[in-house]
């Protein structure tokens, strides 16, 4: 049974979401401000967090950023604003997806189920095909079973989507993927976001794994085409 944390300062919205999620036989916790949400995320293990951007005490972007320091739990941002910048900012801070208010709760649940299915599928494939497999290339190591990334022996905290992007590129070295192709492969063909989502995740990855993100060693750009993982030396 999935365990969900719903965070919004509008209690009627929380009540409605909670009621709908309980119909799925999911366990649901609720928080009404940023500090409470962060505390609950630290003290519990969740399968998904629905997180409003506009919150008292600490806004949702700050909460998301701090959660990413210790957890890769999937996070869907809820925002009353429709501007693209708010959506991209949510992804910048580590969110996996976003939904703009007013939203259809059926759409929200469909997004949640899709993300959880992908997470489960990734775990199953990892266990069946890549158990105990460590991918190594230079100073970069990927623990494909546990979704962990190490750079020069130090673990860096990446989100599930960041790991999926990096894993795809590393296991297909020197193959260029367009932004639309990455979006389809990682987020799914029905994902409603656009290719800028890929740019945000690539930028975050570079900031975490590259010694100099402006001159990347691993995740390269082929201008006008897409992204690829450069492998110039023997690996794996």
Helix content: 40-55%
Largest sheet: 5 strands, parallel
Estimated structural class:
alpha/beta
Radius of gyration, in Å, reads 18 Å
CATH class of the largest domain: Alpha Beta
Q: What proportion strand?
A: 15-25%
Order of helices and strands: EHEHEHEHEHEEEEHHHEE
Shape: globular
The unreliable regions are none
What's the end-to-end separation, in Å?
A: 37 Å
CATH topology of the largest domain, which one?
Rossmann fold
**How many structural domains?**
2
Number of strands: 11
Corresponding CATH architecture of the largest domain:
3-Layer(aba) Sandwich
User: What is the overall pLDDT average?
Assistant: 83
Number of helices: 8
Q: Going across the major beta sheet, what is the strand order?
A: 2-1-3-4-5
CATH superfamily of the largest domain: Response regulator
What does this protein structure show overall?
The protein is of the alpha/beta class and 236 residues long. The chain folds into 2 domains: 3-119, Rossmann fold, CATH 3.40.50.2300; 130-229, Arc Repressor Mutant, subunit A. The chain has 8 helices and 11 strands. The strands form 3 sheets. The protein has a 5-stranded parallel sheet with strand order 2-1-3-4-5, sandwiched between helices. Helix 6 packs across helix 8 (196-209) and helix 7 crosses helix 8. The longest helix has 25 residues, at 105-129. The relative contact order is 0.10.
TL;DR?
The protein has 236 residues and is α/β, with parallel strands linked by helices.
Descriptive keywords:
alpha/beta; Arc Repressor Mutant, subunit A
């Amino acid at each position: 049974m999935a365990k969900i944390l719903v965070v919004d300062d509008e209690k009627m919205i929380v009540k409605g979401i909670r009621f709908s999620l309980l119909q799925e036989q999911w366990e649901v916790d609720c928080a009404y401000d940023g500090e409470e949400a962060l505390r609950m995320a630290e003290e519990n293990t969740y399968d998904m967090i629905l997180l409003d951007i506009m919150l008292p005490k600490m806004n949702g972007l700050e909460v998301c950023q701090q959660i990413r320091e210790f957890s890769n739990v999937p996070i869907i941002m809820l925002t009353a604003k429709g501007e693209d910048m708010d959506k991209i900012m949510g992804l910048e801070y580590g969110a996996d997806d976003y939904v703009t208010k007013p939203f259809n709760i059926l759409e929200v649940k469909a997004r949640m189920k899709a993300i959880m299915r992908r997470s489960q599928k990734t775990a199953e494939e990892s266990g069946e095909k890549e158990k105990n497999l460590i991918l190594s290339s230079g100073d970069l190591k990927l623990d494909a079973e546990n979704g962990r990334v190490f750079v020069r022996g130090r673990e860096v905290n990446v989100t599930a989507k960041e790991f999926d992007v990096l894993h795809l590129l590393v296991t297909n070295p020197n193959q260029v993927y367009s932004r639309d192709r990455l979006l389809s492969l990682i987020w799914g063909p029905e994902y409603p976001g656009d290719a800028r989502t890929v740019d945000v995740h690539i930028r975050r990855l570079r900031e975490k794994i590259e010694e100099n993100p402006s001159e990347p060693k691993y995740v390269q750009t082929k201008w006008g085409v897409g992204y690829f993982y450069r492998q110039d030396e023997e690996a794996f």
